[in-house]
Specification:
It is a single chain. The protein is an alpha+beta fold. It has three helices and four strands, in the order ααββββα. Strand 1 and strand 2 form a beta hairpin.
């Protein structure tokens, strides 16, 4: 009498689960870095737009606006960052929200247009952001 086993043995299933776990362990940090890069890019685009608005205000009144309600924070920036305005130092900062696991703090000097990055989840992302052209 022949017995035909259909299905997988416990060892085969455990091997597949182990392989999936190893692939997930490798893929998650890479995915997280890409998410962080995207959020930094979004913050930079918003800060560039805010800088243009601030330049218009500066040309009209001779000073940069110090009220953050003057800058329109919407979309993805408002979801992951809080806007901070320092009229004394002429710096706009997109600060990472406490609920935001990935991302960085991106600051823009309104006078020079230079970006600075801090509080990156991954240091390699901050160095990547500093290398790319603003």
């Amino acid at each position: 009498m022949k017995t035909c086993n259909k299905g997988f043995s416990l060892v085969e299933v455990m091997i597949v689960v182990a392989i999936v776990a190893i692939l997930g362990t490798i893929a998650l940090p890479t995915y997280s870095r890409h998410v962080e890069k995207g959020r930094i890019t979004t913050a930079k685009a918003y800060l560039n737009q805010a800088r243009q608005e601030a330049q218009v205000e500066f040309l009209k009144s001779g000073k940069y606006p110090d009220d953050k309600s003057k800058y329109k924070a919407g979309g993805d920036l408002a979801k992951y960052h809080d806007l901070d305005v320092s009229a004394d130092t002429f710096i706009l900062t997109a600060k990472k929200k406490a609920t935001n696991k990935f991302g960085a703090e991106v600051s823009l000097d309104l006078r020079t247009g230079k970006f600075t990055y801090s509080n990156c989840t991954y240091n390699s992302v901050c160095s990547w952001a500093e290398r790319i052209k603003d």
